[in-house]
Each structure stands twice: as C-alpha cells, then as structure tokens.
Design a protein that fits this description.
The structure is a homodimer. By secondary structure, chain A is mainly α. The first copy, chain A, has a domain of about 80 residues: Winged helix-like DNA-binding domain superfamily/Winged helix DNA-binding domain (Arc Repressor Mutant, subunit A, Orthogonal Bundle). Chain A is about 55% helix and about 5% strand. Chain A has a two-stranded antiparallel sheet. The interface between A and B is large, with 80 and 80 residues. Chain A binds a DNA duplex through helix 4. Chains A, B: Pfam families: MarR (PF01047). Chains A, B: This is MarR family transcriptional regulator.
DNA sequence: GAAATATAGTTGCAAATGTCCACTATCTGG
DNA sequence: CCAGATAGTGGACATTTGCAACTATATTTC
C-alpha cells in the first residue's frame, strides 16, 4: 500500500512505485528496455539490429576464431536452439561461416567473414560509445562501480570464475 | 580484437568478451535475461507471469486507485497500444476493472478487484524477496549503491524529478 | 466560438523472439 | 561395447512489441 489520495493521479510525478521503488530487479528490467531501445537506434540499419545476441556473437566470433555455438549460447544466456537460429541468421547475412570441427564432428567452428570483420570493427566503437553516452549523467566513478558489480553478477551467473 | 590463440576455445573460461567486457549496456541487457527468468520461476503460475508490465501494473493500480493506462505506459516504457492490451489482459484475468473517467471521457480509470488486491498482496513480498535473493551474493551496501544509481537513471529516463 | 492541435485509447498488421521438446549424430568413460 | 552426456537441428507455438491509422474528446489559439 501507499499514500493514497482521493483523486487519481494524473501525472507520473504523483505516483510512487510501491515496493518496486526499492526493487533492484525492477530497475534492471526497466533499464534494459531503455538501453536496448537506445542501442537499436544507434545501430539502426547495421545488420545487427535488435538484441545482444547478434552483437555479442559477432564480436565473439571475430575475436575467437573457431568458437562454437554452444559456448556463445552459454554466454548470451540462450538455449542451443535459439542460438543455432542466430548463427544461421548471421551466416545468411554473410557475417560468419560455419565449419564442422575436424576433431569433434558434433561441433561447429565459427569464423568471421570479411564482411563480418568489417562490421565488427565498425560496431565496436559504437557499442562502447552508446553505453558511455547513455549513462553519461552518472559519474564515471559510479559507472565503474555499477559495471564492477554487474560484471561480478554476470560472471557468477554464467559460471565464470 | 583480443588475445587470439591458435586453437578455438572449448570452454567459456577461455573466452573474453571483447569490448563488451567493459560495456555497461551489455551487462544490463544480459542481467535482464537472468533476473527475468528467475523472477518468472518464482512467480510461476501466479497469473502475472512474464514481464515487468503486469507486476508493475498490478501494484500501481492497487496503490493508486483510478490511475490511468497512459501513466502506466510511461512508467513501464511501453507505448499506449501495448499498454492497452496489457490492461485488457489483466481485466480478462479479473485483476482490474476499467471505468471511463467522469471528468475526461477520453480517460479510463483503473481499479483493482478483490482478486487483484489479493494477488498484489501476495506478490509484493515475493518480488522483494526475489530481488534480494537473486543479488544476495553482492553485499547489501553494494546492492544499495547499485539501486541508487539505477533508480536515478530510471527516474531521469521516464522524466521524474 | 471555430479551427487547429494535442491527448487517450483501440485495432490491424506484422515481425521477431524465445521456449519446449523431440530427434540424430557423435563422443567419452567405465 | 554400452550408457550417458554433449552438439546441433527442426517443429510448433506462444508472446511480445512496435508502427500506423483512426476515433473521440480536450485544450489552445486566434
């Protein structure tokens, strides 16, 4: 419950968020929407639209030639099936190629294409910049704090040391 | 680019995230997946499944009787159309009711039903608890820090003072 | 007071995403 | 050599969200 007034609120400023006001999950979930939207705008038309999936994959394949889908799946927190489709999509776009591993024929090795590499090079600064700009109203120290904490959380969740 | 070894990585521990390693957006987006999934599990079967939308709406309507959809839309960062459907859904589930405002007939006033109120009461502690538990591996002080920063960001984005 | 502009909500359409599950192929360990 | 794990695929499906167009009603402006 909350401070209830007789008349319904007519502006967001008259509203409190109930328990969500102090709920970390709420802010993470909501900020996600905002950040993602902003990122999409900044990357508009870049073949790597919506979703952390594509960006992460592109960069990962670029910097770890031969990486396999299942590893990417773990890192982006999706199941193999979703990840597979993502790979397919990126292959269709000519960004990566898939090759069967010679040592274990169940696994695929992913490699970046020229086009993919070019895109990766182009995207890297954009992604960094977007993040910096988006959060520029909080101090660099706080950004760092925030990131340290979230990084720790992330690593713990995906099972990194 | 990144430390590249000749052989492809076979475990996530051998992988670095390229520039994403230091990109706040990446962590927000990824943590969002994790938190949301966890929350869904905790709330399973509770008529308020997937999405911040439903929870926020329920609590908001419960603590601000007569609140209108457009305000909720702003707070949950969705457009009116998506929000409208959300309201419809919740009405179908018997959680809220919609009534035309007597002072401005364009506007709807939302009210909680008994069922909705009961659910809100039940959910409040769950949501709080979920958030606390999910982040329990980071210290309370840091959780607080994190929340303060994100709260500030959120308020700025939706345009709250 | 009439016209122009803004706001609230609805609806159709479409696209994209993610999930569950079952299935095949292949590896590894006992 | 068999049992059980792991990698990838494909199907079916539900869900969500966004855009754009449209109506109704308020508000502002001249």
């Amino acid at each position: 419950m909350d401070a209830r007034s007789k008349t319904p609120p007519t502006s967001i400023t008259e509203v409190t968020l109930d328990v969500l006001e102090d709920t970390l999950s709420f802010y993470i979930r909501t900020m996600n929407i905002a950040v993602s939207r902003d990122l999409d705008d900044k990357l508009e038309g870049l073949d790597v639209a919506k979703g952390t999936g594509k960006i992460t994959t592109l960069l990962l394949v670029d910097s770890h030639p031969g990486i396999r889908p299942s590893i990417i799946a773990e890192l982006i927190l999706r199941d193999r099936s979703a990840t597979g489709r993502l790979m397919e999509q990126m292959e269709d776009h000519g960004l990566i190629t898939r090759r069967q591993s010679s040592t274990d024929s169940r696994v695929q090795e992913l490699y970046i294409t020229e086009k993919g590499a070019a895109l990766a090079a182009r995207i890297r600064p954009l992604v960094t910049e977007q993040s910096r700009d988006f959060f520029k109203f909080i101090s660099p120290e706080e950004q760092q704090q925030l990131m340290d904490i979230l990084k720790r959380a992330y690593r713990r969740i995906v099972g990194l040391p």
